Amino acid sequence: PFLRLLEAQLQDQRREHEEEVEALKNQVDAMKEEMEKQQQAFLQTLQLSPEVQVEFGLQQEITRLTNENLDLKELLEKLEKNEKKLKKQLKIYMKRVRDFEASQDMVPAERRQHERNMQVAVQRKEKDFQGMLEYYKEDEPLLIQNLIT
Q: For residues 146 and 68, what is the distance between their CA atoms, to the nearest angstrom?
């Protein structure tokens, strides 16, 4: 039984690894294609006059910034949706706390004190959190830029 469990775990890990390798290969292929397109565009711009090169460069930068703005808008929409969800959860939890506190008025004093002590411990644990968002470290500059704008 134990060997079967280990074998199943090993097969799961192998399958996950193969899927990850395949995804990375696809990502590398996509990057190669993008790099080839950029090289072709660069070679074409070298053959153009300096004025046209500047105009082409500006068009490329406008396109890049437009795509970046669309990505940021998408991220903003996700964050706003998450914020609404969290606010809704907060309202539900606040109502539960009020209901719980109301029910505590009917409980004997010593039991109430014990549950308050437990409640204080829970509140301290919650203070260990440093934020409400989960994000990758490499996305931090983008997140900060979004918060500023």
A: 11
